[in-house]
Amino acid sequence: MDRRSFLSRSVALGCSLAASPLLTPVSFASAPGDKRLVVIILRGGMDGMGAVAPYGDAGFSGLRGPLTLGDEGYIDLDGFFAMHGALRPLLPLWQDQQLGFVHAVSTPYRDKRSHFDGQDLLEAGGFSLQDGKVRDGWLNRMMGHMSGQNAEMAYAIGSDPLNILGGAQTVQRWSPDVDLALSSQAIRLAQLVTKDDPAMSAALAEGLRLADSDGDAVAVEGGMQDMMSMLQDNAAAGRGTSYETRVAKFAAGRLRKDARIASFSLNGWDTHANQGRVLARSLSALSDVILTLKSELKGPAWKRTAVVAITEFGRTARFNGSKGTDHGTGGAMVLAGGAIRGGRVHADWPGLNEADLFQRRDLMPTRDLRAYTGWLIRDLFGLPSGAVERDIFPQLDLGDDPNLLL
Amino acid sequence: MSFDPILAEIRFGCGLSPNIAPSESVGEFLAGLDRPDEMADRFPIESFPEFRLRMVKREELQKEFRKNRGTDAGETLRKEIRLLKKQARLDHWTWMASHVLRRTHSQTPFKERIEGFWADHFTTAGKAGVIRRGVSPFVESAIRPNMSGNFSDLLIASVTHPLMVHYLDQDRSAGPNSRQAKKKPGKFGLNENLAREILELHTLGVDGPYTQGDVRELAELLTGLTFKANKGRHFQKSLAEPGEEIVLGTSYGGDKPHIRDIHVVLRDLAVHPATARHMATKLATHFVSDRPDPDLVAAIERVWRDSDGELSVVYEAMLRHPMAWTDRNPNFKQPFEFVSSAARALNVHPRTVQSLTEKKMRQRFFDPLRLMGHIWQRPSGPDGLDEDDSAWITPQGMAARLQWAVIVPSLLVPQLPDPREFVKTALGSRANDTVRFAAGAAESRADGIGLVLISPAFQRT
């Protein structure tokens, strides 16, 4: 059932506030199993070779210079790949086999290297952009193949559009940077003035509930001054615990309850200049997000969770003139979670000799990233291969099973 | 039910204002479309031809920069490029301020609303660099001068506009048998994006009587239409597919491709019965209700067909129909309508908005709109904003509106009005006892104003 039909149904039936589906999500059918999926979109094009360096390839140092391993540098993973030092906090997860990587993959997108198109294709899950834009996202199409939907099943978090979750299936949206701060009197009066409009009043009630549960309180006693200072406190809190961490915390909170799918974006991967500093910062945010998900999902739920981070394309194999990398093709994916069979880097490694590179400039993608994502969702949610290869990811050949899950 | 001055301002205008009297008749309400454009004079927005010069300059500097890379001159050029980009960014905030102020102070508010409707119908955006700031100049040059004439002129101005040609990848499209494609096989190919959106979104509608074959033929007919900053939008014969194309059973073009062929097919699509149906439904849905009365849609459609899409008589047909004034299933204001009608009710002074820094424009307008679900001039797709109210009445959207309504008004006027007075200013005859009570019971003026703005009487139209 899509959002349109359930809202109009609640209006048509003249539902009272208490019976509104927005307020009582558990009144719907039980959730489809207890597996959880978090899809993180790394916007800007993560440098896969910077995040997970193939230092065992003889061609690597010729392209990127010598690699420093050890406390101040990269962390060896398997004698061939080493992960960036900013991911060091994730080392225990790697050792527990709850962290893994996929390398030398990309979407079917080639040649133009535009963020705009690359992200469109990444989120649509399609094979090509030539036929115009596909307007729904692959995560939403995936939901169409799952039984026992409930209104709280999927969350798009943050204020960017997240087309990956766009489409016919109901998706909840929330951004933790809505900083409501109101007196209890104002909250009561706001509920009063909207009470005769069922759709508005249900949405407001749910908004107040979510705002109260996203890490900063809504009700504040006192006048305008208090409210302004509370907003500033929230802004300060936002600086202390980063926005990304708040997003992850909120996602975990929903996933502990009825949500099974959550998606959000991390920005800051377009490392055209001074890559050393910029990439470290973005990887460190990703590491914080994964650790926040783990600590907030608390044990059993984490065991049933798969986190996958994907990006629109990788970057050039060589550094450019400003100590950065430009838009490329083949890149890496990050896998994490208690449900993951981690501790390994999956790759059909293409090599780094000049002739091995895509158009002599980018890491050659040897496999469609949709094949890995496809196997992951197929096994996590028990989806038929046919649905994955035709509807969710059109024109995909799943190929060999990479055995991503426990 | 017939024309009601208060409802006209709320439903078809920009909301009630404390110092602008509502129009008394349909005639007066529509007359504003053809009067001298006072709002454009008071709150200017750059035209696209002027804006294009920025892109030309950017390319010239880039070319020079490439020649001088690594030298002091190169460094100077790099700084100039950065400044040029920054200036475009800063100017685009002043254009946003102009859009807000036009809605706040217009004596002819239907003009602003219908501009919003068409700007969204022809949703477009720049993808990277300076052209990202080109949306307001596109609206100012392609939409605003063409809103009360014939739809075919509006259609041609919009879909062959440089920004649309760029946004929907027409500048990447070449006929499979064009000279360019033959010269460099594999490098040039057909891109169907613009053709598909013209049929699906701009004219016939997704349920319209066209096939994938029509999309492809139209795409082939469109080849040659392209854009370069220094040449503007132009027709490049070496990209054009030779030979005739059959779109909806009619043959267009021939061995000598010409932009005239594109104009001819667009004029035919503009007067197609499916376009009349699609646009009548969309107008009634946008302005009146998500579930518009079938008689209302039929009346607009009939006039569209009879007049071959003469827009001023189409608007009049809508406003003269009794079911345009029904109070059943009223619409919910989209985020920009909500924010700008609040500014109008508060009679926000032009200087207050014009003097806002980039950071403050973000805090007061751009960021709140984003949280309400509308990322200003950065569409998630060519289908534009959702007409379905349920896309906006969301937990996050409502929370963001409440937050804005309580805080931002006090930052836009030197002193907030008495909430009990504001009930009358903002709601007129729609004020009810609940809102009056809440406005009086609020602990502060800011809360009181916020409660009036969040009420269904203000947000429903």
Termini of chain B, distance in Å?
A: 15 Å
Rg of chain B, rounded, reads 24 Å
Globally, the shape of chain A reads globular
- Strand-pairing-aware structural class of chain B: mainly alpha
Written description of the protein model:
The complex is a heterodimer of chains A (406) and B (461). With 406 residues, chain A is of the alpha/beta class. Chain A has helices spanning 3-12, 48-51, 60-64, 91-95, 115-124, 138-143, 184-194, 198-213, 224-240, 243-256, 275-297, 300-303, 369-381, 385-392, and strands spanning 36-42, 52-53, 75-76, 82-83, 99-106, 154-157, 172-174, 261-266, 305-311, 331-336, 345-346, 367-368. In chain A, the strands form 2 sheets. In chain A, strands 1, 5, 6, 7, 8, 9, 10, 11 and 12 form a 9-stranded mixed beta sheet that branches. A 3-stranded antiparallel beta sheet of chain A has the order 2-4-3. The longest helix of chain B has 34 residues, at 72-105. Chain B starts with a helix and ends with a helix. In chain B, strands 1-2 form a two-stranded antiparallel ribbon. The model of chain B has no long low-confidence stretch (mean pLDDT 95). Chain B is globular, with a radius of gyration of 24 Å. Chains A and B meet through helix 1, strand 7, helix 7, helix 8 and helix 9 of A and helix 11, helix 20, helix 23 and helix 24 of B.
Attribute tags:
heterodimer; A: 406 residues; alpha/beta; Alkaline Phosphatase, subunit A; 9-stranded mixed beta sheet; 3-stranded antiparallel beta sheet; 14 helices; disordered N terminus; B: 461 residues; mainly alpha; 3 domains; two-stranded antiparallel ribbon
